Fold:
Amino acid sequence: MNSTIRTSYLSLPPRRNIPLPESPFPQLPPRFNSPSRLIGFLNISPAYSPLRTRLRHGSAELRGVQSRRVRVSSRDAQFGSFSDGSEVQAPSFGEFITSERVKVVAMLALALALCNADRVVMSVAIVPLSLSNGWSRSFAGIVQSSFLWGYLVSPIAGGTLVDYYGGKVVMAWGVALWSMATFLTPWAAETSLWLLLAMRALLGIAEGVALPCMNNMVARWFPKTERSRAVGIAMAGFQLGSSVGLMLSPILMSQGGVFGPFVIFGLSGFLWVLVWLSATSSTPDRSPQISKYELDYIQSGRQKSFLGENKPKTTKVIPPFRRLLSKLPTWAIIVANSMHSWGFFVFLSWMPIYFNSVYHVDLRQAAWFSAVPWTVMAVMGYIGGLWSDIMIRNGASVTLTRKIMQSIGFLGPGIFLVGLATAKSPSVASAWLTLAVGFKSFSHSGFLVNLQEIAPQYSGVLHGISNTAGTFAAIVGTVGAGFFVELVGSFQGFLLFTSLLYVLAALFYILFSTGERVNFDEPTLV
Structure:
C-alpha cells in the first residue's frame, strides 16, 4: 500500500496543471513553469528530495538541506493524495486524539502540571512552617511571594530565547532547573531562611519560561483552527497540577514529613525531561514519527507567517520592545495577563489559609476544598477552547471570539467572588470558588491564544512581557492580601476588591484587543 500511496503523491499524469499554493516567496524560475518540466523536477533522484520539499511550500529558495523521511501511514490512504491541490480534510476526533501533535501537547500539559504542583506545595507547607517558626501572616505572604521574585525576571529573557531557539530546548532546561530547586528546598529550609527564599526564587526563574514555551510549541504544531483546543489541553494540565499538588501534599506530608512532596515532585520533573528530549521534536517537519497526512494538514492550516519559522535565525536577537509596547492590543494582553495572575496567585496562595481561618477546617480539608476548583477549571478550560475553535470554524471572526472568551473568563469570576465573600459555610464557599475559578479558565481562549495571533514572530517575548507585568500584579496581590487581612481583619474585603478589578480588566480588553496580526515592524501601522 505504501508504494501505491507514494506513486499517487509523486507521479502526476502528463499535461496536467499543477496548482501551486500562494507564497510570499518569489515565483519559480521560467524553466520550471512548464508542467512537463515540473514533472521531471518532481521525479528527480532522491538526492535532490530537499528541492522537491521546498517546491511543495511554494518556495524558489532551492536549498540543499538534509533530506528527511516522512512516515506514510494508512491514514494517508484514507484521505488520498494531496497532489491534486484539494484542501486537506479535517481529522475526526479519534484521529485528533491519536495524532503526533496531541502527543506533544500532552507532554506540555504534564510539564505544566509539574510546574504548578511545585508551586502549590508551599501553599500547604506554609501552615506547619509558620507554626513551627512563629511566622506572622504578612511574613508568610513574603515567603510565598519569593517564588514570584524569580518569576519576575525570567519571562522576557526566556521568551526571547524561546523565539530564537524554539520551545523544546528551552522547556527542557526550564523543567530541569525548577525540578532541582524543588528537590533542594528541604535542604535549604533546614539550612537558613535566606537559602529557602533563594531556592524559591530559583524555582520562579526556571518556571518563567514554561508558558512562553507552551505557546511556541502550540503555534508550531497546531493549525489556527485547533490552537484554542491545544491551549485548553495544555492549561488543563496546569490546573490539574494545582489539584494534584494541593490534594497529595497533605498525604505525602503525613507519610514523609513536611518536605516529602518537594522530593517526590522534584524527581518526577527529572524523569519528564528524559522523556521529553527523547520522544518529541521542536517542529512537525523534524518529527520522524509524524505521518505525511498529518504534516500536510498542519502545514495547510497554519498562517503564512509561520511558513518561514524554520529558516535559520539571523544574528539579531533583541526584539523591538518600543514598537511592541506602542500598540494598544499589546496593552490589552498585558492588562488581561496582570489580572489573570493577580487572581490566580491570590486563589492559589491564600485559599487553604482562607478556609482554615474563616471556616475553621483542618489543613487536609482546606487543601481539598481549594483543590476541587482547579479540577473543574481544567475541564472547563478545554470546553472553552473547543467552543472557541468551533466558533472560528463556523465563520465567527477571531477578534469577536477572543473578546467573548475573555469576557466570560473575567466577568464570571467578578460576579462569583461576591458570592464567595458572603458565603456562610465552607461547602457554599467552595461552590462559589469553583464557579469563579472554572469560568476564569475561559480567558485561556482569550488573551493567552491572542498572543500567537497579534505577534506570531514575537509571541515568546510578548508572552514574557505580559508575564512580567502579571508577576508584578501577583506579588502585589499575594503580599497585599496578607497585609490587608492584618490591617482590616477581613479576607472578604480583599475578595470584593479583586472582583472589581476583574470587571475593569474585562472592559479594557473588550475595548482595545484584536484577533488580527499587528504590524510591529512598521511603527506607524497597526
